[in-house]
Amino acid sequence: MIKAIFFDLDDTLLWDQKSVKEAFVATCKLAEAEFGIDAEKLEEAVRQEARELYSSYETYEFTQMIGINPFEGLWGNFLDDEENFKKMAKIVPSYRKDAWARGLKACGIDNSEFAAKLAEEFPAQRRKSPFVYEESFKVLDTLKEDYRLLLLTNGSPDLQNTKLEITPELVPYFEHIIISGAFGRGKPDPSIFEHALEKMNLSKDEAIMVGDNLMTDILGSSRIGMKSVWINRHNKERNEVIPTYEITHLEELYPILAELNNK
Fold first, then answer.
1. What are the DSSP calls for 220-235, one per residue?
2. What is the per-residue pLDDT across 6-61, written as a single tens digit (0 to 9) for each?
3. Is the separation of the CB atoms in 2 and 253 below 8 Å?
4. Rounded to an integer, what distance in angstroms lies between the CA atom of residue 187 and that of residue 223?
5. Residues 38 and 32 sit within 8 Å (Cβ to Cβ)
6. Quick one: residue 232, left, alpha or beta (phi over 0 = left, psi -120 to 50 = alpha)?
7. Could you count the other beta carbons within 10 Å of the beta carbon of residue 111?
8. By CB atoms within 10 Å of each CB, which of 1, 67, 171, 208 scores lowest?
9. How many angstroms separate the CA atoms of 12 and 231, rounded?
């Protein structure tokens, strides 16, 4: 009997990739207007430089374990107490400037002053553009009638809470909000799923995990024998991690839950 649904946040309920994309577009357009460079080429270059720089820092292993991507580093402040977050908070100001400066350079513009301006613009644009999938609230409204809901998200508490502050309507749906950076380990580590079940006082057979990431949401829940639903809206290739169910729209949860609870 399924009593609770655990939801991932980014790209499951919140459309984080679209928010990041829109922030890039708006920021890169400033460089296009200033120097006549191609905004799309600049975005590609900055994304590439950001990935490379991000993986060169001593905090990289920690960010991998907690689940914080390079583009979150381009706008998060990481004002958390934990030692690694304190290191990140020190790193990100120069990381942002360097990523934009190197991206500009790749497009033939050597201008650190303008790079610093873009490094400030991107976080402002990202905060201005929180996107939620069109069906998220409708589905949560329906599910909360019959199921207990928990939010299980990887990331820095400071940054994930910022995302929730700019979409405050999401918060009241959830009995608990568990953020990997506060817990100390991220999905797919089995311990964070066990922690979530303990919080809800449920067994693994009484909850189901819904998320967009095979390597975190689905792998982690399968490691403790919990059923999972992979939301694959953008026709991603499946890998060796096998979800219990695969859907393309959150409303497809209804028949799955009905079937599970009629067994």
1. HHHHTT-EEEEE-TT-
2. 999 999 999 999 999 999 999 999 999 999 999 999 999 999 999 999 999 999 99
3. no
4. 10
5. yes
6. beta
7. 16
8. 1
9. 7
